[in-house]
Write a structure and sequence with these properties.
Four copies of one chain form a homotetramer. Chain A has eleven helices and 14 strands. By secondary structure, the first copy, chain A, is α/β, with parallel strands linked by helices. Chain A has two domains: 9-154 and 326-338, NAD(P)-binding Rossmann-like Domain (Rossmann fold, 3-Layer(aba) Sandwich); 158-322, 2-Layer Sandwich (Dihydrodipicolinate Reductase, domain 2), CATH 3.30.360.10. In chain A, the strands form two sheets. Chain A has a seven-stranded parallel sheet, with helices on both faces. Chain A has a seven-stranded mixed sheet with strand order 9-10-8-11-14-13-12. The radius of gyration of chain A is 20 Å and the shape is globular.
Chain lengths: 354, 354, 354, 354
C-alpha cells in the first residue's frame, strides 16, 4: 500500500523547549509530508519558537502555546518531548480523539509497570494503553510499530546496546555467555537535556571525563527487558554510562564472551546479514573503527564487529547521534512507519563532518 | 527563465580531501540537480571517498582519481577545493572544453595581480581569465556571477566583513568614518583546513584562545579591494583574526564610527532594507545577539546591528558557518546562479542546534 | 619591614562553593603563610569541602559551615567569594573585630554608589566602608592596597582592560583619542560562575561563539570609573564581551587611535618600561601573539603591543586566566600586600600547558 | 638516610619539544632540589625554550641545544622525552659517565626484547642495560627503582590498568577470572603527542569520540608482561583504548569477574589497605565516581571500586592525568626515589579544577 506522495500528516509536539524538541522541529520542518500544527510549552506560552531557537528563523513560524489551546486533538500524531509522566497523563484523551502518540520519554518503554514505578518513582497512569503500545525500535519491532496507536520511543543507550546485540540472539543456539554482557557506553552531554543543572555546565563537563550511574541507571531495566525478549531468557548485563565532553554522539563498546560452541561463527557476516536491509543500520567493513562524528546530525547508526586476536571475546562498537537515531530521528522513523510512508522519508540528511 | 525541474548539472571536484571538499560532497550529494561525476586527488587515487569520510557511506560512491583520468572536461562545472594556485593552472584548458569553474581558493579573488603575487608568493598564471572572472559574493555581485564562466569564491572572513559593511555604502553620502573600520573576527579551527600542522592540533587549540595574523592576513587585501569597490574609495581597515576552540563557525565584530552627519540614520532599518530579499542573509531584530551555532552546517549568515548607548559607535555582529556560507555553501549558491537554478536549491538545510 | 618568614595568616572564606571559591582554596592551601580556618556555605553546611571538590582530597580538611558558627571574627582576613551584596552586609562587624576583608564580588569596586545601585539593583549598605576601601588592582594601586582594611578585588574584564591601557595614561600629553577606545573582550565560560543556568550548559556553550552584554555589562562602569582616574578625564569606551568555548582564560583585544602628536611614540618601549618591575605583568616581545593557555592556572597576565602597518591604530592584546589574575590569584596578591609578604608568595605556580 | 635539604640534582632533558617535555619542564622548574642544566633538540637548536612554550617565560631560561654540545654527561640524571629508540642508543655512554637515566619512551619498559622488537619494529640496542633497568611504577616496584641506574617510565595506559588491578593479585588465592580481564580505557588527546598528524587535529578530534587500537596497541604487551609478574601467570586481557575530546586526562574502566570463592571479599577494603601508604594513589570512598579533572595537572591517581548490585562483576574506575602520573610526574617521582628524596618532593601541586 504505497501512500500518495501528497500524504499530509498533521503534527503536534508537546514540550518543545528541550533538545529532543528542537531536533524534532529541525527534522519535521524538513519532512516533505509533515504539517507542523502546534507546539506546546506552559512556560513559554506565546513565545515564537524561532526566538528561542534562532536556527529555525524563517523556517518554523509557530509560537509555543499552552496545551489546552493548542488543538492537539486535531492532529494526526502528537510527539511528547516532555519529562517522564506527561505522555501517559494525556494518552487516553488523545487516543479517544483519534490521535496517535509517540512518546520520547519513558512512559511507554517498560512493559513491566512495577519496574517502571521503581525507577521513575511514579505509578503508571494507563497500564492498558501501555499494553497496546509498541516499543519503537523499528529494526526489532517493525510490524508492531506499523500497527501501533502508541509508540514508546527507545532510550538512547538502549538503541545502541540492543542493535549492537540483536544479531547474537537470532537462532536457537546461544552464541555468547548471556550471563555476563558488558556495555561500556559513552554519551555526549546533550543526552542530559536542556535543564539548568550544575553537573552539565560547560565548566564542569568540558575537558573532563567521568562515569555516572554505575550504581544504577534507568536505561538498564529497559535494555534488560528487551534483551530478555530477544534472548528468550534473562540476560546478565553490566552497564556503565560515561559522559563525554561533546554535544552530540553516543558510543557503546560491548563485550561478550563467545561460547566454545560458537567459536567458529563468522560474526562479521552474521551482523552484515542481519542488517542487510536496514536503511539506517550500517555494519562497517571488518576492522573498522567508527567515530561518532560520522553520524552527527543524521539518523544512521554504525556498527563494527571486532574479535581481538581471534579469541573468545567479542567486541562490538556502536555509534549514533543520541539526539537523532537515539531520540528524535528514531521518533520520525516510527512516524513514517505508522503512517505508511517509506521509512527513510525526511531522514536522509547526511552527517555533518567535520 | 525558469530552468526545467529536471536540470542535471554534471559536477567535478578537484581536490576533495579537505574540509571544503567533504562539505561540497555533503551539499552536492543532497542537491536535487547535481550529478557528481568525478573527484580528484593525486595522493588518494583509487580510495573510495566514503572510506576517507565514512559520513558519506552509502551516499557517495565515487573514488578519488588522479586528475588526468577523471574526465573533468566532460563536466558542466568543476569546483576547485585545492591549495592556492591549482585552479589558475587548469582554468584555460577547462574553459576551452566548455567547463565552468568555481574556485574555492584565492586564484580568482583578487583582481590586482600585483597584490595577489605579494600575498600568495606566486605569479598569476592567467590574468585574462582573472579579468573575466566574477567575485562570487552573490549578494553584492549577482549579475556578474550569473553570467560568469569563472567564479572566485570569497574567503570566509571577507564574506562576513563585506556583508556586514555593505549596507553602509549604498548611498552617495558617507555614513561612517571610512578611514578607521575595525573588524575583530573569530573563526573556528576548521578554517585552517585539514593539513597536519602543530598549531591546529586538538591539544594546542582546545581550551585556548589567541589572535593570529595581526601582522597581516591574506584576507585583508581581499576585503580592502572589495570595500574600495563598494565605497568608491579606499577604506582603512584594521583586521584582527582570532582562533576559537570550535570546529565550525565564524563571528565578526565590526566597529565603525558614525559620521556626525549620519547620527540620525536608522541603521537597523538600513540593514533590513538592504537584505530584505536575500534568502541567506538574516538581519535579526534590534537587540539580538547572534550565536554561531544558529547557522552551524547551514548556508545562512545572520547580522545584528548595535549602537551602544545610542552613541556614534556602530557595532555590527555577523555569524556564519565558515565551511558553508564561508566556503562550500556559497560555492553551491554560485553554481545555482550560474546554471539558472533558484539560488536556494539544495541549500535549505536547517542549522544543527545544539 | 620584612615579615618574619613564619608569618601565619588566619584565613576565612565566605561562600566557597563557586569557581572563585575553589580556586582560592587551591591557591591558599598551597600558600606557605596561610592557615585556612573556616569556609562557609549556608546550603552545604557540614559537607566536607573535599567531597564537593575531590581535587582537594587530602589537602583541605575543612567542612563548610554556616557563617554564624564559623568564627570568622577570629580570622586575620576574610575573602568573600559570594554574590554581590554579601560582603557589604558583613563588612562593619568584621572590621570591628579587627578582620580585614577582600571581596571578590562588586561591593567595593565602584566608588560611585549611584552607579553601583543602578547596575547592581541594590543600595550600598556601607558607603563609609566603601570610601576607605581600596580598588585591588595592585599594579595601579599598590600603596592604597598595602594600607587597606578592605579591598574590592577587580572584575576579570577590568583587570585586562585597565592593565592593557594604563601605560597610555602616564604622562601629561595624551597619546590616544580617549573618546573612542574599543575593548573587544573574550572570556572562558568559568567567568559565568557555577550557577545552574541554561546559557552556560555544555550543550549551549560548546562549539559555539557569541557576544553578550552588548547593550550593557556591569564591568563597563567599573572600567570607566578607573579609566577616568587614570586619564584625569572621562574616557569613551565601547566594550563588547564575548563567550569562548573554553573553561578558563580571557583575551582582550584593545583598539585605540593614536593621536597625530603621538605617532612617533615607541609604544612597545612604553609598555615595557611601565611594567618592568611588575612580577605578574609580562610585556611580550614585539610581534608576539599571546595565547590564553600560556597563563592557564597561573597569576600572570601577558600583553602584546601591535601597530598594524605602522599606522595610527594601536592594537593591544591582553591574556589572563580569569579565575586567577582575574579573580582569586589577584585576591591572594592583594592579601600578600596587605600583610607585608612578598607579593609573589604562593603565586609562583607555572601555567599548565597544554 | 635522609638527604640533606639542600640536595641539588643536575638534570638534563633530551627531546623537550613535546608534551611530556614541557610538562617535565613545568614540574622540574618548580622542584626545590633540581637544577635544570640542559635540554636538547636537534631541530630547535638555539631557540629559547620559553619562546616555544611562553608559559615558561621568566621561569626557564635555557635554550634548546644539539645533544653533542649539551654536556649531558655532567648531569646527575637525564630524562628522555623522545621517540622510542633514542634512549637506548645513548644509554651506555651516559651510564659510563655516571649519569642515571629515566626514559619516558618504551625502550626500558618491556623486558622481553622479542616482544619489544615485534611492537616497536626495531631491535633492542642494549639488552644488558635493559636487564638491569627497573620498570618505574613506583607503587609496584619501589625498591628496584630506588636502586636503579636506568628506569623505564611506564606507559600512561599501563599505569592506570596496573594500579587498578594490582590489589587483586596480592594473596595466594586468586580472586578473579584472570583469563578475561577487560580494560576499557579513554584518553585525552595530549597522549598522542605534539606531532603534526591529521587524526589529532582539533577539527578531527573535537566533538567526536572513537576507539582506536582495537586490533592491537603497544601498551597491551606492556600491561600483559607486568600483569604476569603480578599474577604469577599469564592474564587474559582485552584492552580497548578510546580517544576523548579533552586535552589531559585518562579514565580506565576495568571489568573483572569475581571467582565464586571470592564473592565474600570486601574489595573496597582490599584496595584501601593496599594503597593506604601511597601518597599518590587515592582510593575513594565506596560509591564514588571519579572525574579526570580532579587530577588535572597533578600527580594523583584516583580509584573507585564498584560491584553493581553486589554481583560477581567487579568494576574498577581509575583516573589520572596522562601527562603527569601517566608520564612526567611519574618520572619525577622516580627521580625522587632514585636520589633519596621524599617521593612527593615537588609533586604536591593540587589539581586544577575547573
Amino acid at each position: 500500500m504505497a501512500p500518495a506522495a501528497d500524504t499530509r500528516i498533521k503534527v503536534g509536539i508537546v514540550g518543545g523547549t528541550g533538545y529532543t524538541g528542537v531536533e524534532l522541529l529541525r527534522l519535521l520542518s524538513q519532512h516533505p509530508n509533515v504539517e507542523l500544527r502546534a507546539i506546546t510549552s506552559r512556560k513559554e506560552d506565546g513565545m515564537p519558537v524561532a526566538e528561542m531557537f534562532p536556527s529555525l528563523r524563517g523556517r518554523v513560524n509557530l509560537k509555543f502555546q499552552v496545551p489546552d489551546s493548542a488543538g492537539l486533538e486535531h492532529c494526526d500524531v502528537v510527539f511528547f518531548a516532555t519529562p517522564h509522566g506527561v505522555a501517559m497523563s494525556q494518552a487516553q484523551a488523545l487516543l479517544a480523539a483519534g490521535v496517535r502518540i509517540i512518546d520520547l520519554a519513558a512512559d511507554f518503554r517498560l512493559q513491566d509497570t512495577a519496574v517502571f514505578e521503581r525507577w521513575y518513582k511514579m505509578p503508571h497512569a494507563c497500564p492498558d494503553v501501555l499494553r497496546e503500545s509498541a516499543y519503537g525500535l523499528v529494526e526489532l519491532n517493525r510490524e508492531r510499530v506499523a500497527a501501533a496507536r502508541v509508540v514508546g520511543n527507545p532510550g538512547c543507550y538502549p538503541t545502541t546496546v540492543l542493535l549492537g546485540l540483536a544479531p547474537l540472539f537470532q537462532g536457537d543456539a546461544p552464541l555468547i555467555d548471556t550471563g555476563h554482557v558488558i556495555a561500556d557506553c559513552k554519551s555526549g552531554v546533550s543526552g542530559a537535556g536542556r535543564k539548568a543543572e550544575v553537573a552539565t555546565l560547560f565548566s564542569e563537563a568540558s575537558d573532563n571525563f567521568k562515569a555516572y550511574g554505575v550504581m544504577g541507571h534507568r536505561h538498564h531495566p529497559e535494555i534488560s527487558e528487551q534483551l530478555k525478549l530477544l534472548a528468550g531468557q534473562p540476560v546478565g548485563l553490566t552497564f556503565t554510562p560515561h559522559l563525554v565532553p561533546m554535544v552530540r554522539g553516543m558510543f557503546s563498546t560491548l563485550y561478550m564472551r563467545i561460547l566454545p560452541s560458537a567459536l567458529d561463527v563468522d560474526f562479521q557476516a552474521l551482523y552484515e546479514q542481519r542488517y542487510a536491509d536496514e536503511p539506517f543500520v550500517d555494519v562497517m567493513p571488518a576492522g573498522s573503527l567508527p567515530e561518532t562524528r560520522t553520524v552527527r546530525a543524521s539518523n544512521f547508526l554504525r556498527i563494527a564487529v571486532h574479535r581481538p586476536d581471534g579469541g573468545d571475546q567479542l567486541v562490538v562498537l556502536v555509534v549514533q547521534d543520541n539526539l537523532v537515531k537515539g531520540a528524535s530521528g528514531q521518533a520520525v522513523q516510527n512516524m513514517n512507519l505508522m503512517f505508511g510512508l517509506p521509512e527513510t522519508t525526511g531522514l536522509g540528511l547526511i552527517a555533518v563532518l567535520p
